[in-house]
Amino acid sequence: MSKVATRFAPSPTGALHIGGVRTALFNWLFSKNQKGTFHLRIEDTDKERSKEEHKKQIIKSLKWIGIEHDGEEYIQSQKIEDHIKIANELLQKGNAYKCYCSAEEIEEQKKRARQKKLPYIYNRQWRDADEKDAPKGVKPVIRFKSKIEGNSKLKDLVQGDLEIENNTIEDFIILRNDGTPTYNLSASVDDHQMGMTHIIRGDDHKINTFKQIQIYQAMGWDVPEYAHIPLIHTIEGKKLSKRDNASTLDDYSKIGIMPDALRNYLLRLGWSYQDKEIFSLEESIKHFNLEGIGKSPSKLDISRILSMNEHYIKTIDESDLYQYLVEYSKIYKDEIQNDKEKKVKNSLSFLKNKAKTLEDIYNNAGFIINDKVYFNEDDVKLIDDKAKKIVSEFIKELSSITNINRENLEPLVNNLIKTNNTNFKGVGQPLRIALTGSKFGPGLYDIIMALGKEEVLKRLSKIIP
């Protein structure tokens, strides 16, 4: 058998959909597991909606999640002449024919099917007609001459044995009357010319597969193996569409989901290996197989994605986590300035506490990143005269300390609690508000050690008139 080759074939008409990412991932992992190649085909024949910016975004998104294709991307629009040539070959071989039905005639056939509550199938009016009877001045479409008798069977690598009655497959159009090829023709020719051995795609393509196999058989080409993976549904059980929130990779990267976490989540969305949940990239390639893909649709669960991301935040090396945070802030937030880098990096151990996303970490680090303290109006009202007295005493005590650490901060705070007849909240709350602008946030000692003595004194002194 020839070396395994798979492909992912998106249309550059919009941002890459999360379902497409999973399809690409399964193709890529299968190829890598089989020591084969994975190819990217850009299906850009819809000239009005296809955009170069979308193509770049697709490639960038796949790279972000760890998927890189082999060789140059295959651009479908550059192969149109090859598709037309095959259509004409099929015509010459008697596997296709010219259909002169007008749009009105087709609409009438569809109307009759609707009235009878039957699925529309073209009535094959021109299948065996004599071209001498063709109306003058009408540009025909070219239709493939589908099988009418018997059944077609497919050994699907995910769904198992599939069977369809041939008379339910219409004589589908392969060339429109403007001479442009249709999806089923173009995809078949491209897959053949690219030497694809396995076609792994959504199970909404099953009917297309039966059509494309007939084209392969008519041309005498080796038919690839097919695997149809169930679609991704929303948590409510509806088919996920591009209009849904959190349907594109950008929706996840902008809230600070890390690529490894999302890739791990998508890998487990409809695929399983024993009871293992967390997979490194190497483990994903080693263990991936088509047998592990389920037959039922999977539900996209944002809470599971956040949970997976939280796991990666907790377990990833902190220097790597910091690099992710830096890149994230460059794209979506204010860039972390050089003079703040060390403080943020040294504080990651508590900034990542309870954080589910990079955005959470960035927000937790706001008091370090921003020199100016932005006060919550309700919280600043809590700094009354008694609180100001405590802050003033804290400034005086802290000024005499050379090295700030938990060992010398704890007795200082405990002494303030005792002398002011209060509790930890009575001391800690005004200090936290003065230093960060909010009564909520990291632990008091973590805040003080993160900012350093000089910055702490500077911020506290602004509260005391």
Question: What are the salient characteristics of this protein?
Answer:
single chain, 465 residues, mainly alpha, three-stranded parallel sheet, 12 strands
Structure commentary:
- This protein has 465 residues and is mainly α.
- 47% of the residues lie in helices and 11% in strands.
- It has 21 helices and twelve strands.
- It has helices at residues 18-33, 52-64, 80-92, 103-115, 183-193, 206-219, 249-253, 259-268, 281-287, 302-315, 318-332, 338-346, 348-351, 358-364, 366-369, 377-380, 385-399, 406-419, 424-436, 444-451, 453-461, and strands spanning 5-8, 37-42, 74-75, 96-99, 141-144, 151-156, 160-165, 173-175, 198-202, 225-229, 232-233, 298-299.
- The chain has a three-stranded parallel β-sheet with strand order 1-2-3. Strands 4-5-8 form a three-stranded antiparallel β-sheet.
- Helix 1 packs across helix 9 (281-287), helix 5 (183-193) crosses helix 6 (206-219) and helix 18 crosses helix 19.
- The longest helix has 16 residues, at 18-33.
- The protein is elongated.
- It starts with a strand and ends with a helix.
- The mean pLDDT is 93.
SSE diagram, text form:
Elements: E1 5-8, H1 18-33, E2 37-42, H2 52-64, E3 74-75, H3 80-92, E4 96-99, H4 103-115, E5 141-144, E6 151-156, E7 160-165, E8 173-175, H5 183-193, E9 198-202, H6 206-219, E10 225-229, E11 232-233, H7 249-253, H8 259-268, H9 281-287, E12 298-299, H10 302-315, H11 318-332, H12 338-346, H13 348-351, H14 358-364, H15 366-369, H16 377-380, H17 385-399, H18 406-419, H19 424-436, H20 444-451, H21 453-461
Parallel strand pairs: 1-2, 2-3, 9-10, 11-12
Antiparallel strand pairs: 4-5, 5-8, 6-7
Helix pairs in contact: 1-9, 3-5, 5-6, 8-10, 11-14, 17-18, 17-19, 17-21, 18-19
